[in-house]
Amino acid sequence: MTVFSFMQVDAFTDVPLGGNPCAIVFDADPLDDAARLAIAREMNLSETAFVVHSDVADFGARYFTPAGEIPLAGHPTIATVFALAESGRLALTGDRTTISLELKVGPIQVDVAAVDGQVQQVVMTQLAPRYLATYAAESVLPVFGLTAGDALPSVPLQTVSTGTPQLMIPVKNIEALRRIQLDIPAYNAMRAAGDFFSVHVFCLEGLTAAGDTFARHFAAPPDLIEDPFTGSATGGMAAYLWHYGLISTPRFTAEQGHWMSRPDQASVEVLGAPDAITGVRVGGGAVTVLRGELIL
What we know:
This protein is of the alpha+beta class. The protein has helices spanning about 35-45, 75-85, 135-140, 175-180, 185-195, 230-245; strands spanning about 5-10, 20-25, 50, 60-65, 70, 95-105, 105-115, 120-125, 130-135, 155-160, 165-170, 200-205, 215-220, 225, 250-255, 265-275, 275-285, 285-295.
């Protein structure tokens, strides 16, 4: 019998049982990938994080969905670094602590803002974007119960990666997002033929007065069909919006998850000029909701 300490943290929120939940398993080096995948299925969350040793960064982490490993993810990064600080494994150094975190894609920078030793916000810096395949709205939108006329005109539907490739689908308004009905067999067929991990559908208006964008994010079983908040895709969306001139400022507030009764909010900043983006910063708060032991 082996015992692993773990926590469950809600990321991109400051309210327990809000945001996007992530389980974080500490000292997970003895676990192989098959065991990590089995644990992710047991947790049955969007992602489960496994903290491991790193020779090139302050900490290492591996992220698994119920379907398999994902190379970079947002809410697990926020949750993992928050959990490292909350558990005392990461010593905070004043109001701001900067660490490196080695993921499957390599090391990234993560900044922790704290007041009187209490974490207020965790901000990850994602990789410079890669712009990949484009898709026809006439082929893609019906998979979501929409029509090509719902797509935002004059910009492509395109896979963008700031560490994980995700298909960006900008639509005209929140009303289009409300009407989405996912055709899972059609989605699976599209994904099998595509170059993306999952799909981010978004518009240029917030659901609340604080938001500048609102999004819904989709996968297919055994992964959760809809994700409460997707930090990696928010980074890709930010790079897409800045690159194609759809936003006038590189800083904005992204919202997601409200219709799932898990409202999430992130601060976003694109680094660099629209045609020379060097990275994207995505940050938010987090709350611990569970501490325990995993007995294998």
